[in-house]
Amino acid sequence: MLGSHWFQRPEQDTTSQEDRTAVAPATPETRPDRVEGTVLRFGPGVTAALSHRSETPLAAAVPTPTRHPRGGLRRHALPALVLLLVIAFLVWQRSGPGFAADQAAVTTGNTTVECDGTADIAGVITTNGRPGTLSYRWVRSDGTTSAVLREVMPGGQKKARVHLLWTFRGEGRYRAQAELRVLSPSRHTATIHFVYDCS
């Protein structure tokens, strides 16, 4: 037998129209926000598909880094090697021994100068081949001393050739002496003797 409660009629809804409106308010559509290209929707009415779409990882929007071919490394290998060689050469040049003068020597073409003649005295200063500047002066036996003279030496050049021209006038005989004094980078002296003969 079926119970009598199966036959009960539903109770009449006594709620007024205004109350029903207050209980179930209208749901205007909420404007979405944009975060890293993903649309997020809020409020009631969001379906499972939209909710799943909003939970898509943001990493998917980040572009994958492009791999460069190995040929690019080979293209830059030669310039990098040349640069390293240049740097190594400069370091070696600075860390090696400094500029130095090893010795000095003087010669002349004629050991005897005739009347009103000129003696051409050649000096040779030998260095270690490093770049630098020589300073020297000539000293003559007649009491004359030249100013300090300078010779710029490029790298790889080991000999500096300098000259003294000494002119004589008048009659007589004179035993002359010329001296080459190297002042820097180190001190050296070279001397030569010759004769002026106009008798």
From TrEMBL:
Matches recorded under PROSITE patterns: IG_LIKE
Top-level taxonomic group: Bacteria
Stretches the record annotates as Disordered: 1-33
Skewed-composition ranges (Basic and acidic residues): 8-21
Ranges where the Ig-like domain occurs: 79-199
Protein name: Ig-like domain-containing protein
Natural source organism: Streptomyces liliifuscus
